Request: fold
Amino acid sequence: MPITVPAYGKEAAGRLASMADMTADDGALRRFLHGLPGVDAVGLQARAATLGTRSIKTTAKAYAIDLAISMIDLTTLEGADTPGKVRALCAKALLPDPTDRTAPRVAAVCVYPDMVATAKEALGDSGVHVASVATAFPAGRVALPVKLADTRDAVAAGADEIDMVIDRGAFLAGRYMAVFEEIKAVKEACVRADGSAAHLKVIFETGELQTYDNVRRASWLAMLAGADFIKTSTGKVAVNATPPVTLLMLEAVRDFHETTGIQVGVKPAGGIRTTKDAVKYLVMVNETLGEPWLTADWFRFGASSLLNDLLMQRQKLSTGRYSGPDYVTVD
Reply:
């Protein structure tokens, strides 16, 4: 089945509209963002560490592994990407473990805009989505018209989801309204001719935002601008997803939902490589947001290398033997 995010209900849309004063101008947006409670860094890190100690065994572990597989955005974002490489990745997305057809499919395949058509053809009507990075990923250092053209091209080629990067320079300089308006403009560029729209994931590149307070502010800014998902990282810098940062974003999503009634997804990306890591993140989601977020509609892993470890652990649970990396395909 295709992954779909419900449109905002009237009540939720009304609550969001009631917050319009907060984004009326740059001064109002600045006052709101800087009025958010400061982050207790020690408490945040301690909470993330505590959640990371939870132990999951046997049937619960098997369930968590399959759930994590179903949440992966299988990704290739290299200058050397070819149609053949993208088609091979799509084949793996559809059948992650050729020796076991009960293994679930991943959530999406993520590629550059010029590879969207190739991925769309390879995946067909399988229900595995095509996601595309746009807005001059990963730096985002081009003019807005170029970013919007990049987005429209990907959507026109068939992208179901757009992963955009914010202008970190503008954000760190305190030009919050410029970032807000850019997200809104990209959101509008995601709308197709028939009125439907690709879902928008907004990437913060948290490793460059410097402080936890900035991560909280970026989370609220993106959600107020209409993000369907908020995402930690591009995976192209030294510091990517971390448990404390992801926990902070989950808490922001929880608080936003309590305020507006609007559900927003979260995607940690980069640096998540093992089944143990994935389970820690799933525990964090369950403890912070609850079961409604434990689906690919609302939580994703941007971690292609994670899939192989999940498959090896899955094989071990079913056969009692650890197969090793030679028994899974290398992306």
In short: The longest strand covers residues 129-133. DSSP finds 13 helices and seven strands in the chain. Residues 72 and 239 are 20 Å apart (CA to CA). Confidence is low (pLDDT under 50) at residues 1-8.
